[in-house]
Specification:
This protein has 78 residues and is of the alpha+beta class. The chain has one domain: Glutaredoxin (3-Layer(aba) Sandwich), CATH 3.40.30.10. It has three helices and four strands. It has helices spanning 12-23, 36-46, 66-75, and strands at residues 3-7, 29-32, 55-58, 61-64. Strands 2-1-3-4 form a four-stranded mixed beta sheet, with helices on one face. Helix 1 (12-23) links the parallel strand 1 (3-7) and strand 2 (29-32). The chain starts with a strand and ends with a helix.
Amino acid sequence: MKIEIYTKDNCIWCDRAKNLLNSVDLTYTELDLSDDDERQKFYKKVGEGVSTVPQIYIEEKRIGGYPQLVTWFEENGY
């Protein structure tokens, strides 16, 4: 399963999302958006009113942030 998580430094929700993925041994690729300019470019590219990290993609589909990841876990039997 391909999982990508867009994060930044000092982000408690990013840490929680990574911890949740790690808790069930799901591997992921972390993409660091700590640079403000890079993060703003990412938000514009995603659109849909996205303005926060983490942003989690599973199989190239945007799941959303941490709360949506929790919902995804529940809906997929984790």
